[in-house]
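User: Just a sanity check before I run the rest of the batch. Below are the structure tokens for the first item. I only need the designed sequence back.
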């Protein structure tokens, strides 16, 4: 009985500290050595596909094929421009330019990268308008794919630009950026982060990401 309790405690520690390394990239990284990333332990990569309603990343297809050939679980991301077209229009654009999802066990749901605007932090939107824009995006993505997208953000941006809404905490898995030794405060009512972007550098290019669970959990996220 006692041995069992100790073992259970040890297993619990192992389970709660499980993590799978990965990374995210865009065309800025040029040519990426996906096979070397896989050999070093990475098991997933999130690849920039689109921005706004007209921009497509010129390296998306090369990156997606390279990641697939290396055996990585992979998915696309969309850089939100809430100062541009509607959320649903941007979700449609993303979906038709790499952001789709299929139940093949190695495609992550698309990720909505929503963060500091190039010209103003909240793109000139009120918190209510921002929440409405995000709602429009995630609902359209869900109706196109059957999955809710991942939402990438920071604690500060989410508090400032959405008023810390918890509206998406039970539907959209959280990808939280914080370049520090711990993930810090989780905003928006999410119980935990699904992926932590812990650094804006990575040995093989891009940013370093950590899936908050084991490889089986990552596969479940991909499989829906
Ligand atoms: C935002 O929500 C989180 C819960 O997810 C809470 O811990 C935090 O205190 C909130 N921040 C503010 C500024 O209200």
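Assistant: Here's the designed sequence for the first item:
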């Amino acid at each position: 009985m006692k041995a069992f309790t100790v073992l259970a405690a040890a297993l619990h520690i192992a389970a709660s500290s499980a993590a799978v390394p990965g990374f995210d990239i865009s065309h800025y990284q040029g040519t990426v050595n996906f096979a070397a990333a896989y050999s070093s332990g990475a098991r997933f990569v999130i690849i920039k596909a689109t921005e706004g309603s007209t921009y497509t990343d010129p390296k998306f297809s090369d990156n997606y094929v390279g990641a697939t050939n290396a055996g990585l679980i992979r998915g696309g991301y969309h850089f939100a421009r809430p100062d541009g077209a509607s959320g649903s229009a941007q979700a449609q654009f993303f979906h038709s330019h790499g952001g789709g999802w299929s139940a093949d066990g190695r495609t992550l749901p698309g990720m909505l990268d929503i963060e500091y605007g190039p010209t103003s932090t909240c793109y000139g939107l009120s918190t209510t308008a921002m929440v409405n824009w995000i709602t429009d995006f995630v609902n359209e993505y869900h109706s196109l794919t059957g999955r809710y997208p991942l939402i990438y953000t920071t604690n500060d941006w989410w508090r400032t630009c959405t008023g810390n809404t918890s509206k998406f905490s039970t539907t959209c898995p959280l990808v939280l950026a914080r370049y520090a030794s711990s993930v810090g405060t989780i905003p928006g009512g999410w119980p935990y982060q699904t992926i932590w972007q812990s650094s804006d550098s990575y040995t093989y290019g891009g940013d370093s990401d950590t899936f908050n669970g084991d490889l089986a959990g990552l596969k479940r996220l991909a499989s829906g």
